Structure formats: C-alpha cells, structure tokens
Amino acid sequence: MMPLAQMAEAVLRTADGREKTKLSHGFAAEWRAARDAGETPEIGTATPPMQPARPEKPELLSPRDVPQRKPGSPEGRIALLHAVAHIELNAVDLHWDIIARFTDIKMPIGFYDDWVKAADEESKHFNLMCDCLEALGSYYGALPAHAGMWRAAEDTADDFMGRLAVVPMVLEARGLDVTPNMIKIFKQAKATQAVEALETIYAEEVAHVAYGSKWFHFLCGRHEMDPKDVFHALVRKYFHGVLKPPFNEEKRADAGIPPDFYWPLTESA
Ligand SMILES: [Fe+2]
Ligand SMILES: [Fe+2]
C-alpha cells in the first residue's frame, strides 16, 4: 500500500473531477481495509502542489464576475448545484491537502482516519452534485465558478492549526448555516434527487466540522493553549472579513463549536 501522504498527492495532481474523486474513493477504501484489519499504515511524506490540478472547465472567475441567477428558476437551481459541486471538489482537495502538507506534525492515527473518511465523503458529495446536474441536462464545467476557493489553503499552507480553524471550523461550519435554505429551495421545486443529495451532504458535514473542532482542541491541549483565544487569533489572522450570522447554532453545537467561538468574530477586532 502506498504511504497515505503519497495517495493524497496523487489525488491533488489529478485534474478531472470524476477521476479525482474515483481515486480518492479508491484510496479511502484501501485505508479503511487496512485499518479494519488492525494495521497502522505508513503516513510517509509528499510534495503536494501549491494549487491542486483542476479540469479546463469550469472557467474560474472572481466572485463579483460570477453571474447571479434567481434561485427560483430552473437555471438558478442549476447554478446553485454547480456552485455546490465546485465547493465539494475543493473540499476533496482540501481534505487530501491537509494530509499531505503537514506530515512533519505527528498526529494520532485517528486524525488520519477522520480525514480520509471526510475526503471520501467529499468525493461522494461532488459526484452527487454532478449526477444532479447531469439529470438536469447540465454538467460540472458548464458554468463559470468561484476562483477564490483555494485561498484559505494558500493562506494557511504553513499553519496546521490555522488550517483547522479556517477550513473545517469556519468554512465547513458556514455550510451548516446555509444548507437548510438550499434544501428548502429544491423542496419547493419538488426536485427530489437534489433534496436527497443535499440532505446527505448536510448530515455528513456536521461530522466534518466536528473533526475540525476535535483535532483543533487536541492540538491546543498538546500546547496548553486556550482553544477559544487561539481560534479567535487564527481566524482573524487568516480569514478575510467577519463571520456573518445567522448561524445554525444547533448543528454547530452538535459539531463542537460553541457560540463564544463564532459570535465575537462577527465584529472586526
Ligand atoms: Fe461536502
Ligand atoms: Fe465537508
């Protein structure tokens, strides 16, 4: 079996979305089989690219140039699914990137179990969104997409705790805030396939945020630091802008993110 960090690098260097997620799923299955057999596979080291390989399409535009469409229209719903597909593809790369990039920091094997599982789920989420798009006569790449998605990864490329604070505990937690409304839009349109796919994503994302919180707290404990203070400092350092309510306080609580972590960040320091 290839060391895990090298698996991660191979995913990052694969451009096509369906290919990338197929590889991701295959590696996750290998990892799980080894772990179920009681093995502790090698993590190894890798040289992940600063930017993951991506397909020719979608065209990446700055957010203000991505056309806004009414969510109530069929085109608007396709645009929404396309935007989520793009987020999920970035999430696949983000999950493998953290595995490949921070191998110098020794972590318990359970950290890798969590991240491999989440990477596999992100791969499934991407494919669910692609299936929905294709059922509606579209596909991932048919529309332009948000160019800034990898910024958080670049900003935190040298800071493991910063990565945990910004990616799972801010960005993925934001997903918990906005997904219920998205589900509502597709329910109103009686778009069953999209509703089911988004409900799967919503349920599994709670665990991803929880993994972030769990391992962030673990590292704070290792260094005897106050988690809330460190979280505030890292988000202010690496995240651009303030956090925007309304928050999904219930799901955030399920994921181990208490209100005093995010409310103070709705105001600039
Ligand atoms: Fe996801
Ligand atoms: Fe996620």
From TrEMBL:
Membrane-spanning intervals of the chain: none
Region called Disordered, residue ranges: 34-74
Top-level taxon of the source organism: Bacteria
The name this protein goes by in its record: Uncharacterized conserved protein, contains ferritin-like DUF455 domain
Family annotation (InterPro entries): DUF455 (IPR007402), Ferritin-like_SF (IPR009078), UCP012318 (IPR011197)
Any matching Pfam family: DUF455
